[in-house]
Structure formats: C-alpha cells, structure tokens
Amino acid sequence: MVVTDHVVEDVDLLVVGGGKAGKTLAMDTARAGRRVVMVERGMIGGTCINVACIPTKSLVTSARLARSAGRAESLGLRLGTAEVDLGLLRSHKEDVVSGMVELNHRQFLESGMDFVLGTARFVAERTVEIDLHDGGRRVVRGADVVINTGTRPHIAAVPGLAEAQPLTSESIMDLRRIPERLVVLGGGYVGLEFAHMFAAFGSRVTVLERGPRLLPREDADIALALTEYLQQDGVALITNTTVKEVVSERGTVRVLLEDGSVVTADDVLAATGREPVTDGLDLEAAGVRTDERGFVRVDDRLATDAPHTWAVGDVAGSPQFTHVSLDDYRIVKANIDGGTRSTAGRLIPWNLFTDPELARVGLTEEQARATGRAIRVAKLPVKAIPRARTLRETRGLWKAVVDRDSEQILGAALLGPESAEVLSVLQTAMWAQMPFTRLRDGIIAHPTMAEGLNALFASWVD
Predict the structure, then answer these.
(1) Which terminus, N or C, of the chain has the lesser number of Cβ atoms within 10 Å?
(2) Does 195 share its domain with 317?
(3) What rounded mean pLDDT belongs to the chain?
(4) pLDDT (average), residues 316-330
(5) How high is the pLDDT of residue 435?
(6) Are 207 and 184 a contacting pair, CB within 8 Å?
(7) Buried b (16+ CB within 10 A) or exposed e, 422-461
(8) How many domains, in total, are found in the chain?
(9) Model confidence pLDDT, tens digit, residues 50-74
(10) Could you write out the three-class secondary structure of the chain?
(11) 233-248 pLDDT, tens digit each
C-alpha cells in the first residue's frame, strides 16, 4: 500500500532512468498510444551521450588527427606542428554532445511521453515518489516498471585516493586542462583509451596495472601488440604493481607503489571500473533485490524479483556497452508484450578506440581451446593489407579462430585501422553460421580494409 499525501498517477509504463534501453522503450511505447512517464535525474539522453561513448569518441577523433598531422610528411604534406587548443577541443566535444542532447529531448517530447526531470525513489511495488527539479512532487505507478539508472565511476579504496580528488572517466572530459603528467590507474579499456588520447594531446602518461599485462581477457599476442603500440606513442606502462597510497600536495600528486617507487603527476585518472546507481532508489520497497555489488538482480528475461518490474542496461549487470543496452530494450519490449525473449546466447562485439583500434567478437583462442573443440587459428599482420599501406597505417594484427570440423568462425580480434567497421562483416558471418571459406573466397572490393578478410582466412598459423 502506498503511503503518500499526493494523488497516485497510474500509467502503462514507468521508466526510471533515461539511458539507451529505457528511453528507446519509453518513446516506442508512447508512440503506440500508451501512457508513459520517464524520470531522469539530469542527463538527457543518458550516460553514453553525455559523459561516455559520444564525447570520448569525439575526443578520440581529435587525438587521431593530431597523430595523423605528425606523419603528414609521409603523405606528401607539410602541416607544421599540431598544437592542442584547449578551448577549441572543449568546444568540439560540447558541440557534439549538446547537439545529441537537443535531438534526444526533442524526440522525447515528440513521442508523446511524459518526460520528467527529477529524482525518484520507490515507495511501493511499481510506484515511485518523484522530487521534481522545479520543487514539486509526484507519485507515479506503472503497470510495468523499468529500472535503467546506469552506473557511475568507481573510486578504488586506495588510501588517499579519494582525498586527492582524482579525475574519472566523466570528469576528465570537462577538459579543465591538459595535464603535463597524467597517471592512469587501471589498464582496462577505459584507462587505455584515455591514456592514448592524452598522450596524443601532449601529456606524459603513465598507466599502472595490477595484473601482469594489459587486457587480461584478450589473447596474449593481441594484448602484447597493443602494448607495443602504446609504448611507441609515448605511453609508459607499469604492470604487476599495486598502489599503496596517493598523496596530493600543492597541485602535485604522488602515487606510492608497494615496491617503494613513486610516480609523480599533475593529475590522476581513476579508471578502476564502474558501480551501479541503485543507492537512494529504495528498491526494497519495490520488492527488487540487488546482488552483492549493488546491481539489480534479473533473470535472462531481464525480469527482477518483483512482478512486472524489469531492469535494463548497466544497472542490470549487462555488459557495459550501449549496443547491449539497446538489445536489452528489444528483450524487455517483447517480454512486456507477453514474449519469451532472452539474453542467452547473445553474440556481443566490443571495440577499444585506441590507435589502432581493437575490435573483438566471439571466443578468444584460449577460450576456444578450453571448450575442447578442434580449432584452427589464422593471423594476418595489418601491413599485408593494401588499404593499410595507402593509409600509411600498417600497425596491427588480425586474428581469427575457426572450428576445424564445421569451418564456422568462433571468434576474432582485429587490431588495426577501421577494425570496428570490418568486425561487423565477421559478426554477420557468425550469425549466418557461414563457413570461413565464404570470406576467404568472396569478392570483396579493393582496396578496402575488409578485403583483408580474404587473406586472413588463408593465413593459418597452426
């Protein structure tokens, strides 16, 4: 029973949090003529547009251009020395973000949904009380409720780190300055993108990683190749290290390591993962349970423990990619309408936008061997692809794993220019369960990076 002084508004769909899955479902449902309320604390369009994928990839574009300018003479041009203008850089990023925020806001309103800026907390099953940004208050109950509150940067429990007010993957994009010296805590995907980016902007970057190498979930040959390229571009890497303490004094940050060494910097970027935004939601009142890390517990239909209550995107523990969140929307939309769509067996690609970029889908070689299958492994240096030579971007290694019996592709890692685009070709072949020979023998336009697939699947190393 809801205890409140306010009238309870009943709607067909209540969405708490406006990330990719939630906002897409809200707009779709509203366009179908149903009553929809979507509550968002402040990031119109969600994390991806405001502080994640879109602004970071905008800055990646700038970093790549800076590197391209540095090798302009090899392309027959004299451009002089590229200089980063902080104001222009910030303006570029903010222009891209603001344009997408404006587009999203307009789409919200045009869809017919009731878009509410405010902070929601559950007061009963499927019912929230919303503190509006304008000072008012509403109580809304949904026939179905979707929780889509996302995640935020996690600050590791390192002595002195929080007190040093480290940069995070979100705050670093405020671009208050380009630090002369930047220490990145964490050699994962987020940390490496920013490390490579700021090295291109002129920072002296040091990455500290606890494990023996970067990207521990990737095959060693791919990870080591990327490590070499990062070092070539001026990123210093220290692995097998543990941060003992962080000390901030008079604008300088000292990172003390367990072995007694010290790394000094102007700024520290804490790239140590993300945590769910579930505190303050009072999920217990809704009958929704979380796991030991605070992520909402869901089954493979993305249903929570409470009836007609769903969770999507990062907060549901889904892989933290916008394209996965979009698929979560498809699953929940189908299941709200009585379907039985599931997250089981999803083929999820991901991309690391370093330079060159790394694109991955399916099993690594190590994972494939662990299944007991008889496999074949193909490798191709990117310099063997004609298009890479015309781009003057020949760093990289492509790798694919194939089932020896069925000849189907089990997985691939593409490290090289335009890899994220080429990966979709491989993923499509995997969806279609095509034998690798179709890509080996297919007529692919010349000269393109995708043409390298012909050569890759003729380059067996086993």
Answers:
(1) N
(2) no
(3) 96
(4) 97
(5) 98
(6) yes
(7) bbebbbebbeeebbbeebbeeeeeeeebbbbbbbbbebee
(8) 3
(9) 999 999 999 999 999 999 999 999 9
(10) CCCCCCCEEEEEEEEECCCHHHHHHHHHHHHCCCCEEEEECCCCCCHHHHHCHHHHHHHHHHHHHHHHHHCHHHHCCCCCCCCCCHHHHHHHHHHHHHHHHHHHHHHHHHHCCEEEEEEEEEEECCEEEEEECCCCEEEEEEEEEEECCCEEECCCCCCCCCCCCCECCCHHHHCCCCCCEEEEECCCHHHHHHHHHHHHCCCEEEEECCCCCCCCCCCHHHHHHHHHHHHHCCEEEECCCCEEEEEEECCEEEEEECCCCEEEECEEEECCCEEECCCCCCHHHHCCCECCCCCECCCCCCECCCCCEEECHHHHCCCCCHHHHHHHHHHHHHHHCCCCCCCCCCCCCEEECCCCEEEEEECCHHHHHHCCCCEEEEEEEHHHCHHHHHHCCCCCEEEEEEECCCCEEEEEEEEECCHHHHHHHHHHHHHCCCECHHHHHCCCCCCCCCCHHHHHCCCECC
(11) 999 999 999 999 999 9
Report how far Cα 6 is from the mean position of its chain's Cα atoms. Answer: 39
For 81-129, what is each residue's pLDDT tens digit? 889 999 999 999 999 999 999 999 999 999 999 999 999 999 999 999 9
Q: Same structural domain for residues 265 and 283?
A: no
What Rg, from alpha-carbon coordinates, does the chain have?
A: 24
In a domain, 217, yes or no: yes
Copy the structure tokens of residue 333.
Answer: 């939309």
On whether both 45 and 31 belong to a single domain, the answer is: yes
Question: What band does 4 get if pLDDT is binned at 50, 70 and 90?
Answer: low
Domain assignment of residue 413, given as a range: 356-456
Residues 233 and 282 in one domain: no
Cα distance between residue 210 and residue 187, in whole Å: 8
Catalytic positions, written as ranges: 446
Tell me how crowded residue 213 is: count the other CB atoms within 10 A of its CB: 15
* Residue at 271: amino acid letter: A
Q: Are residues 21 and 75 in the same domain?
A: yes
Full-prediction pTM beyond 0.90?
yes
Same domain, 55 and 115: yes
Rounded to an integer, what distance in angstroms lies between the CA atom of residue 1 and that of residue 8? 11
Per the listing, tokens 């002595």 go with 159
Domain check: are 279 and 265 in the same one? no
Residue-level length of the chain: 462
